[in-house]
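Issue: ligand-bound run for magnesium ion - logging full I/O for the record.

Environment: standard queue, default settings, no custom constraints.

Inputs:
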Amino acid sequence: MSVSGAIERTRSLPRIAHVRAFTVRGGGADYHDQGDGHWIDDHIATPMSRYPEYRQSRQSFGINVLGTLVVELEADDGTIGFAVTTGGEPACYIVEKHLSRFLVGRSPAEYEKIWDQMYFSTQYYGRKGVVLNAISGVDLAIWDLLGKLRDEPVYHMLGGAVRDELQFYATGARPDLAKEMGFIGGKLPLHHGPAEGLEGMEKNIALLSDMRAKCGDDFWLMYDCWMSLDLDYATRLAHRAWDECGLKWIEEALSPDDYWGYAALKKAAPPGLLVTTGEHEATRWGFRMLMDMECCDIIQPDVGWCGGVTELIKIANYADSRGVMMVPHGSSVYSYHFVITRHNSPFAEFLMMHPGPTEVVPMFAPQLLGEPVPVNGHIRASELDRAGFGVELNREIALQRPYSNS
Ligand SMILES: [Mg+2]
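Outputs:
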């Protein structure tokens, strides 16, 4: 094909004709929206744990209040690209009433300019949080549509696989079972925060010791602290967990706004113990703060919250140049198509969404059809060889469209 032919083919790509934003309840991308008895809502330490009435359940303070956002983009040839993230009805409003103006009539090949327009037009009320979830959802739907129009997997468009397979660690309450299932490590939720005092600290260490005894010395064990600690508690936990249990990393110990605290924790933590964070950070500017202030060893952007693939390219490149690992939070297929293309993303996270969790189930079930799951802790790159992100929206779920843009 001639150069001008390739240019012409890109120029003549179908345009985005329709933008639709739906919300849906019951797990999926809003993976905290689960029924009773799920490990993910069993007395997990949070910043709200200082209030006894919000200590037992994260749903009690509203962790599942938003629900899932589904963004669907239909091109003028009828091809549909879509993505799911969290954000629910407020994000639907932003997509339909604000962001759709930058999409209708445009080519999905213009993702860079579209991202810039979405971000800077919302900057006066956006920058992080639900607005960036909405922008991420649109951006991922654009990449999915572009891949479907070009009949190309997203990871091909990002430069191709740098290894033959993804390897995973498992997040959930049963690292001992995760080891049997072939994962390289297990990340536990921390159950007790500073408000539960020394007794809570002992319980945190006892659970980790128990898992170390069950999993043996070579299996990675990590603690996810979900923003619940202060610097003093995090430093003490890091030292005890390293000395007594060989903890691999301490994750998101402090508020995402406390860059100074993270920098101090990184300095105070035992050499060899990794400090990780970034799940609730967004954009190149937020991650630049984490890296320039030397806050952590691994950044963990959620692909559906940090700004989408277009922004993650910038975040990951900066991390690579600084020698920082970039291992996305959860994010299912949106993460897999990125991680497989990067040397500074040597493994990936798998959220164990079975209530036990005693078996591997698709992370964003029941919303995606064709969502790959790890077998023996691995997914082969060839399993991603489907156009776009390689999944379809499950039309059997109760999608609601609260707003429209016409
Ligand atoms: Mg986490």
